[in-house]
Prior knowledge:
The chain is an alpha+beta fold. The chain has one domain (3-89). It contains three helices and two strands, in the order E-H-H-E-H. The protein has helices at residues 15-22, 30-38, 77-84; strands at residues 3-13, 46-56. The radius of gyration is 16 Å and the shape is elongated.
Amino acid sequence: MTSSSKESKIDFMMPEQLIMKYRNRLFMTAEELESYRSFREMTTKLLVVTQGNIQKYSKPVVLQKRPVMINGHRLSKDEYLGIVHKPSAT
């Protein structure tokens, strides 16, 4: 794990709304989103999770209990406190 953040807002938007509102602050480029859209018909809204309080670690933190997938990993309070109190996590 190289960073952590907190969800600051969860919303549902159509792709056009998403691009207009967030433009250059997206996880992916507008071109990547267009490519994603070309594979499926976009008749429903997309889940939009805005991240805040992003903290990058100077050294990666290895989680021993379970793997972390691309969509992230929700930590328990004890797991989080164990990470932030390690000297290598700052």
